[in-house]
Amino acid sequence: MPAESRRVNDWRVQQPVRIAPSILSADFARLGEEVRAVDEAGADWIHVDVMDGQFVPNLTIGPAVVKALRPHTTKPLDVHLMISPADPFLDAFAEAGADILTVHPEAGPHLHRTIQRIKALGKRAGVSLNPATPAKALDYVLDDIDLILVMSVNPGFGGQSFLSGQLRKIEAIRKRIDASGKAIDLEVDGGIDAETARRAIAAGADVLVAGTATFRGGAGQYAANIAGLRG
Ligand code: DX5
Ligand code: ZN
Hints:
Number of strands: 8
Structural class: alpha/beta
Bound molecules: D-xylitol-5-phosphate, zinc ion
């Protein structure tokens, strides 16, 4: 079904597509400036990829950087925690100014407890599914979460190719969200460009993370890059 008609049918739940540039592809020497530039260029959220060198094979940023970026935008800071365990750092990211905290079930040890802690901190709670993690992992937490993040690459690096096999998972999760009647965002992360954005939206995504596709070409291109992802 074309994205447009599906969107109309699912008007109860699905929101307009929002774009969340991943600052992993930004110039790290000028992060504040880069966040302001994508904010002004039309970004809806700012996606922050936190990696610990253990849960994923890369190391990025911690709460101090989130805190430093907070004054540079009023848009939601969408913090994707690719760290294990995540629990010892939830309070620090919340205090630093994160709006959304997303964790992976495999980060352990108790996903439900982690979600409860995020909610107790007054933040929106997300669960992220790696390419090999089934939608079934959401079975007993769907009532407690605000966002589902489907990884369309293996987490750890920007610039990888979109895994088309994840489209079926996005479709299945879209059906479950619609059946639940809850306002749960369905975000897709990895390998998003104008073409894969269109396919992810058609499958039911309503938030798209884009690093490479947002930051290519320099600041003068950011507005056009972001606009080109809206489907
Ligand atoms: C991968 C990260 C992504 C990544 C996306 O582990 O979670 O957010 O930065 O980068 P692109 O858009 O370049 O695939
Ligand atoms: Zn991410």
